[in-house]
Task: structure prediction
Amino acid sequence: MNVEYTARKYQITPTIRREVETGLNKIRKILGDRFETKVMLAVEKRRHKAEITINPPMISSDPTKSAVNSGNGIPSFVNRPIP
Result:
C-alpha cells in the first residue's frame, strides 16, 4: 500500500498519520495490500477537509477474473445475463 500525503495550510502530525493509516488498514482487508492512496488534508475558511482517493489495481493475468471486460471500459458484470 502506497500512501501519498498532501497538506494545504495544514500540519500533518504523526498522530494524524496514524489515524489515517488505521482507517486504511480496514480497507486493506477488502482490497489486499496492492493499492495506491492519495490523502489530501486542507483547511479552508475554518473548515477542515479530508479527501482520500484509492486506486485499486484492475489488471489481472486471467481475463475471466478481470473487472473490465475486453478492455472496452465496461465492467464484466454489466454484460452478464439476468437469471
The CA atoms of residues 10 and 52 lie 15 Å apart. The longest helix spans residues 14-31.
